[in-house]
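A student in our group prepared the protein record below, which I am reviewing. What it holds is a sequence and that sequence's fold in C-alpha cell form. My question to you is simply how this chain folds and whether the C-alpha cells agree. Do not assume that whoever made the record got everything right. I have pasted the whole thing underneath without changing anything:
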Amino acid sequence: MPRPDPREMVMDHPEVPERKRFCSRSDCGAPVGRSRGERPGRTEGFCTKCGHPYSFVPKLTAGDVVHGQYEVVGCLAHGGLGWIYLAVDKAVSDRWVVLKGLLDTGDQDAMAAAISERRFLAEIEHANIVRIYNFVEHLDQRTGSLDGYIVMEYVGGKSLKEIANARRSPQGRRDPLPVEQACAYGIEALEALGHLHSRKLLYCDFKVDNAIQTEDQLKLIDMGAVRRMDDDESAIYGTVGYQAPEVADVGPSVASDLYTVGRTLAVLSFDFQGYTTVYADSLPDPDSIEVFRQYESFYRLLVRATDPDPARRFASAQEMAEQLTGVLREVVSLQTGRARPAVSTLFGPEVRVTDTELFPRLDGEVSRLGARVPPARGRRGGSGAALPGGAGPALPGGSGPAVGAPGGTVAHAPPAGAGTGAAGTPVAVSG
C-alpha cells in the first residue's frame, strides 16, 4: 500500500454524518443532531434523552499551534472519542504527527479512556502498533476549557475497512478479500495483540476500522479502549458485531480479544450480511458460504476463535497465530498446487545416520572402536598372545596395548618378569 502525501489526507469539509451522531455519555448513546423535516440536524446542542451536551464541531483549525510545538494542518477523521488532526512537529524536524482529542471533555468516561491511552501506549513499542510521542493540553479559546490531546506517530495508508469497501463486484456488492490476504492481516494483528497481552494489557476493540496497512505492514492505530487485565473500574469500549458476548457480564479478556480477530477475519473474507444483527454472536451456515466450503480449515479456525464459551477458544494469540499460519499454508498450497511445508515446532529434524553398522568390519590393524593400534614397543622377539575370543590382533613382542577386549577391559601383556601367570600370558586389567 503506497504511503500517501499526508496533506492529501486532510478533509476539505470536516463534518460527522448525521447517521453517526450519538450522545457521548456512556450510559445513554441516544441519536443526536438528527434532521427533522427540512431542518438539518444541529452539530452542537443537548441530548433530548439525558440532557448531556454534544458537539461535532472540530475544536482545532488549520494554523492553530498546540502546546507551542504542534502546528495543526487539518482534520483527518472523526473517531469514537473525537476528532483526529494532522499536525507538524516544529520541535522535531517538522515531522508529521497526529493529534487525537476528546469528543467531549465533560464526559468522565471519555476523559478516563484518553488518560489510559496515554499511560499505556507510552510504554509500548512494537512494529505493528502506532507509537505515542506525547500528551499535551491546549486552551480552547472559544469555550475556555483546557483540552487534552495525544500526540502520536502519523501512519499513512488505508484502513482495512477502506481496503475492503474499495473492492466491488460489477453488481455493486462488496467483493470480499482473498482469504490468504485476510489471513495475513490476522497474523500481524495477532502479533500486536500478543505483545499487549505479554504486558498485561487488553486491546478490547479490534475491528476493520482500527487497523491500517501502511506500505507492507499492518498497524493498530486506535488504542482508546486499551485497559489493564486487572482493571475492573474503567468503562469498557467495544463494537457490536465484533465484541464477544460475555464481555458485558464478565468483562474483557485474552479470549475476548481473540474473538474480535475471528470476527474481523469473517467480515473481511466473505460478504457477511447481518453480522451486527442476526449473526451478531454466530456464523452463517458453512454450506451457504463459498470460502467455508472451499477451505474447511479456515471455517474451523473461525468456529473455535468465536466459540460462545471463552474456555473453548484459543489459549493465546501465539497459538491462534500458529494455527492461522497453518491455514494460510494450506490455502496457498491448494491454490498453487505446490506444498508449503514448515519445520515442526514440536519435533526436531531427522537424525542423520553416518553409517549403517555400529562396528565396521575389521581391516588390518583397525580395532572394533575404529582406533589404530600404536606400533609395538619393547623387546624384539618373544612370543605374542592373541586376545581371548579373537577380539583383536596378536600383541607383537609381548608388549603394548590392544584395544577392544570384550567386557570393557583392556588387555595387556606384562613386561618381562612381571605378572602372575606363565610367561607370555596376557593379564586383563579393568579399564
User: Anything to note?
Assistant: The helical segments are 108-121, 160-165, 179-198, 247-250, 254-269, 290-294, 296-305, 317-336. Residues 128 and 362 are 63 Å apart (CA to CA). The longest strand covers residues 70-79.
